[in-house]
Amino acid sequence: MSVADLAATAKAWPFEQARELKARIEKLEKAGRAKDAPVVFETGYGPSGLPHIGTFGEVVRTTMVRRAFEALTGGAYRTRLICVSDDMDGMRKIPDTIPNPEKLKDYMQKPLTSVPDPFGTHESYGAHMNARLRAFLDSFGFEYEFASATDLYKSGKFDAMLLRAAEKYDDIMKVMLPTLGDERRETYSPFLPISPTTGRVLYVPMKAVDAQAGTVTFEDENGKDTTVPVTGGNVKLQWKPDFGMRWAALGVDFEMFGKDHQANAPIYSKICKILGAEPPHQFVYELFLDEKGEKISKSKGNGISVEQWLAYAPAESLSLYQWQKPKTAKKLYFDVIPKAVDEYLTFLDQYAKQTPEQQLENPAWHIHGGKPPSKSSPVSFAMLLNLVSAANASNKDVLWGFIKREAPNATPQTDPLLDHLVGYALKYYADFVKPAKTYRAPNEKERAALEDLAGRLETWTGALDGESLQTMVFAVGTERQFEPLRAWFTAIYEVCLGQSQGPRFGGFIALYGVKETAQLIRDALAGKVG
Length: 530
What we know:
Largest sheet: 5 strands, parallel
Structural class: alpha/beta
Number of helices: 23
Distance between the termini: 57 Å
Shape: elongated
Strand content: 5-15%
């Protein structure tokens, strides 16, 4: 069977979305859509702040659906991913993180592309932040087209839909007014003119909308009635109408957004239909929470940033965390990183052993666009963290000396992923594991069992593989009547490694060394660790 045939029944959520998108395209084609029209995916970006984990999540997940759609349709359609920056929005707040913020006080409510760049590297603040966004997306190798809202408004790309919005002004108001409070209704207009005198984005009522002339009339900040065209960048739309207008103008077929947009999605769709276009297929994902279960906020600084995650783990592990259950709220904090890394390694290792049907369900297929690397890591991230702890290692060379026991043919050159993981493990251990370590003394039963284990290791003549050693460790716990047996391994970790859990201990022994592990246990019993 071809990949397209297999994709038709694949259960992974990107394929489910791809099938719904395919059905939408086929329905539109029956209604007259051109067969060669590209399928357009879109994501939006607010350039008032730096790209963040939500930015990454939208683009990586949208890319997963895009690749699933291409696989499902056998490449029959040309696809585009457009990343739009809302850089024509007025500056509502001066960020605390910029140099000389007082110099921007006179630019409040001016479009971000009309605000000077406080960093002195670009022609405007908006241009600077757009460059940061493109650099951010490029660093992950995303395939996308960047679009500036300012350019879209000023170039005429939006003109046809803005003229249509003037024509359908009353219909748009009928959609918007019921969603507003009484006071806001008195002054609301979907059109936000750019003041010809001050250059500010104005939130003022329209005194007249001339659909035939394509103009709006309003009271400018100088107190005079002013008429401007709705085209050519003289106005922009309020964000809700703008959402629907953008869908119509760009011919968007698919867009995903966070749950915080869910209540407004019907408004976006109604505006899009009023302007004569079919709204895109939409996918709503749940937002990330911090360790306390609270919504992650840039202003609060809770949760974890992309940069912080990438300091301790490869980008693929973050992609996996985004892939898993996107409709379920998940906590995003530093403790989830090691598990995400090892889950990624497990999926990558399984991929080559799976049938084509199983491969399409494997997140490695989606993380790598159907082309995962052939090699995983012979050592887990959790194992590396414990190895750093036991060996008291502070550099890669020490860890590689131990790794050679488990993977004698591995080198930093032949196994770059493993080499990266070694570096990540050293940093993660130093910043998070070591400060939290708490060693405890064993009770009488645990001490006797650990003495027994150390003695067996010191006289071990069996196989040096993890399974054989694990069986021996199991035997000690069973013979010493630990119930449940998990309590035996918890004792090993807490007494010898200063933590409540760890990797399979037999594998750890094989990697760290039989004699070395025996000495580690002796030192722990003598209170010489920690």
